[in-house]
């Protein structure tokens, strides 16, 4: 009699386990039939810890594999009613596949899960691209990171253990940068740079991330490393020059400008920057020569005309101050000193006139021209400039 009871109890337990596994099979069949909502409701019953019967299906690897399939189908759906079943279905799908692999200690289902993970990578890529396009950079970053996570799973990595998806790594950095997660941006850009992805541009992005985080030392180190690796790339060299200028390391900025000019002597920006640095150092003759060289390379480079005009104008103003210090009873000397000022103003005039030709409504240029015309007694032009300034109010 006791033997009969034990056998009967065993049959009941076995029947319950089979019933729960049957629900998993049913959920999979519903999913295959396109009945995603019903499949979703069925599979959730098998993993619900508050459901006593789920104790038999929760430890079963197949349960989680099927759950992953169903959530992946939700993520693929364009039906809003289906999409509303889960907030982040592809993340749940990945978690479910990982759980399936964890429970599948004998590796019985590893091949099928591997295929599904590969397909999930495609879905996550599409999700990342779509998120990026609508500027949901956190979502894009999360999706790229999940792709990298999948690539690191042993069964996925086994086929090509040395493969590195530099495109995804770089795009993770790009999403992090746009999403203002700059530490992560540095992490992924640095990884991409290690494999040479996107060349010198990646080092520029690393440096930009550090600069936003106010770490100028790290920003400079990134650019120095980038220049050592890509000495022919002017973009990283330009950034290196700019950061030296920002740090007032003028000698290093000038030295690198010489390298930049040697690599590309047709770039007016290099000559202009060189002229500005010379002017900053008080080397006016070198500054004048370099500004003129900028104009030779690009006859319409506004800033070169403006800086040279301003240099001459300021020398005229300084000379006017000298004249004002002449005693009132020394009129001849005063006139002589003012004549020197007028010589500087006369040199400034053609450059400011060229600026006005290039950018007719620049108020700073017009104010300078107004003062120059007045000082040089060109009253018709003075009145014309006044009218131009009045029209801009």
Describe this entry's structure for a reader.
It is elongated and about 115 Å long. The protein folds into 3 domains: 14-161, Serine Threonine Protein Phosphatase 5, Tetratricopeptide repeat (Alpha Horseshoe); 164-230, Serine Threonine Protein Phosphatase 5, Tetratricopeptide repeat (Alpha Horseshoe); 317-393, no CATH class. The protein has 20 helices and no strands. Helices cover 78% and strands 0% of the residues. It is an all-alpha fold and 393 residues long. The termini are far apart.
SSE sequence, one letter per element: HHHHHHHHHHHHHHHHHHHH
User: What's the alpha carbon Rg, rounded to whole Å?
Assistant: 36 Å
Helix proportion: over 70%
Number of strand segments: 0
Assign an overall shape: elongated
Q: Which architecture of the largest domain does the CATH hierarchy give at level 2?
A: Alpha Horseshoe
Number of helices: 20
Which range does the strand content fall in?
under 5%
State the domain count: 3
Unreliable segments (pLDDT under 50, ≥5 consecutive)? 1-17
Can you give the mean pLDDT? 92
Global structural class: mainly alpha
CATH C-level class of the largest domain is Mainly Alpha
Q: In this structure, how is the largest beta sheet organized?
A: none
Ends distance: 108 Å
